[in-house]
Write a structure and sequence with these properties.
The chain is α+β, with helices and mostly antiparallel strands. It has one domain. Helices cover 22% and strands 27% of the residues. Strands 1-4-3-5 form a 4-stranded mixed sheet. A 3-stranded antiparallel sheet has the order 7-8-9, with no helix packed on it. Strands 2-6 form a two-stranded antiparallel ribbon. A hairpin with a 6-residue loop joins β7 and β8.
């Protein structure tokens, strides 16, 4: 649990642009997945299949073993101290694109490694819906009112990739 007395090394926070995102679990499960599936990462961004806002950067992205490979700045979580380091690397004008700012940091291999930035390529925590609504199937349990969300492209993942949402 977060208190104002926690050292910044232990504070995890996130940002979610909510209009096109599905949470894949509740807060405690998300933190557990962050620690389990992304060991050694201090900052995690969601991933998407589109290279935006500068498509010319697509060849510069590292290949991923599975899933989406382009950074989505609307979905992130990480340790406050490390995120602060990332956002203070240089001045950013109010009218600059945040996705491009984070993309350039991620594409710099030294910065990516130093800041321990990862991408959730297989939607273990974040599922962006922009342009991929066919990848997601939602079923409702009429008895409990719970929603079951299945990530169709990742059906072969362990059962933990099928998520139930509380009412």
């Amino acid at each position: 649990m977060f208190t104002s007395k926690e050292p910044l090394e232990k504070v995890v926070f996130g940002n979610i642009v909510i209009y096109d995102v599905v949470f894949t679990a509740g807060p405690l499960a998300i933190l557990e997945r962050f620690e389990t599936h992304f060991p050694g990462k201090r900052i995690l961004f969601g991933a998407e299949g589109y290279c935006w806002p500068d498509e010319s950067l697509a060849p510069d992205y590292p290949l991923v073993g599975f899933g989406k490979r382009f950074l989505n700045s609307g979905l992130f979580l990480g340790y406050a101290k490390d995120f602060y380091k990332m956002i203070t690397l240089r001045k950013v004008a109010d009218d600059e694109d945040d996705q491009l700012y984070y993309t350039k940091i991620y594409l710099d291999e030294k910065l990516r490694n130093d800041l321990k930035i990862g991408l959730d390529s297989a939607s273990r925590i974040f599922q962006n819906l922009n342009g991929v609504t066919d990848d997601v199937e939602v079923q409702f349990d009429e008895d409990t009112g719970e929603a079951l969300v299945r990530l169709c492209n990742y059906f072969h993942l362990p059962k933990s990739s099928i998520f139930t949402f509380e009412k």
